[in-house]
Amino acid sequence: MNQGNHPANKLIAHVKRYGIKGLLPQNLTDELLDRMNLEGDAMDEDRTEETPMSVVLLAVLHLINGPKISEAMEIKIDPELLMEHFYSYTTLLKIEDMRRKKDIEVSNEALPTLENIFDPKRNIDITFLK
Q1: What is the chain's mean pLDDT, rounded?
Q2: How many Cβ atoms are within 10 Å of 81's Cβ, its own excluded?
Q3: Minimal CA–CA distance to 88: which of 31, 6, 23?
Q4: Three-state SS across 27-96?
Q5: Which range of residues forms the domain containing residue 108?
Q6: CA distances (Å), 14 to each of 30, 38, 125, in order?
Q7: If we measure between CA atoms, which residue out of 8, 1, 91, 77 comes closest to residue 43?
Q8: Which positions ≥6 away from 58 have C-beta within 8 Å?
Q9: What is the C-alpha separation between 66 and 43, in angstroms, rounded?
Q10: pTM score > 0.70 for this model?
Q11: pLDDT tens readout for residues 87-101
């Protein structure tokens, strides 16, 4: 695969263009959202050797640390907290996918922000349309 076409490189280009807010599920391209949902499914089904978690991991680390991530830096995070953020993010990715497919409705006020994306007490009002 051409390195420029690797999903992680596409994510980095997306962040460079739109900033960290581009990683909010509602701001992802369909291609990135699909890739991240594929990775989330692989994690849920214990198939990460087939579909590594590179794009979701990169997104979560950027959301935790902001724009200050660079190639040569060391990031320290509690593994349990990282997994909580992983599951929270992949759940929000699934919700966004369902919202785009018009299976559910989520008000704009209930969409995640950089300030509340990992808040475990945040409520999301969902209306099922199908």
Answers
A1: 89
A2: 11
A3: 23
A4: HCCHHHHHHHHHHHHHHHCCCCCCCCCHHHHHHHHHHHHHHHCCCCCCCCCCHHHHHHHHHHHHHHHHHH
A5: 3-128
A6: 12, 18, 28
A7: 91
A8: 8, 11, 12
A9: 24
A10: yes
A11: 999 999 999 999 999
Distance CA 121, CA 63 (A): 18
DSSP-assigned beta bridge partners for residue 105 = 127
Count how many domains the chain has.
Answer: 1
What are the structure tokens assigned to 17, written together?
């263009």
What mean pLDDT is predicted for residues 52-71? 81
Look at the chain and count its residues.
Answer: 130
Answer whether 10's CB lies under 8 Å from 33's CB.
no
2: number of CA atoms within 13 Å, CB side?
A: 3
Q: Which tokens is 10 given?
A: 């596409």
* Residue 111 structure tokens: 């969409």
